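Entry type: protein chain
Record version: 2
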Amino acid sequence: MNMNDMPQPRTGSGINQAEIARRALKTLAERKITPTPETFADVYYELVGARPAGASAVGVIKDVLKDLVRSQRIGSQEAAAVLERAQQQDWTA
C-alpha cells in the first residue's frame, strides 16, 4: 500500500496525509483514547472513510512519514528512524 492507493477522505479532496493524521490525533484526544498505533490507524481510517485491505499501523505511519518528508516538516533521516522503530514495534520510542 502506498499513498496513491489511499481512498480520498470524506472531508474533501486535497487534504494531505499529514492533515488527516493531525485530525486523527485530535480525535483520539477528544475521545480520551490512548494513542497507540492501532487506535491511531482505526481513527485515521475512520476519517478517510475506508480501510484498504492489508492496511496496518506501520503502513499508516510509513505513508504519513512520506508526506511529512515531502512537505519538509521532518527530515528523511528522522523519518527513517521513526519507521525503523515502528517496524520493530518499539512504540515507546
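Comment: The radius of gyration is 13 Å.
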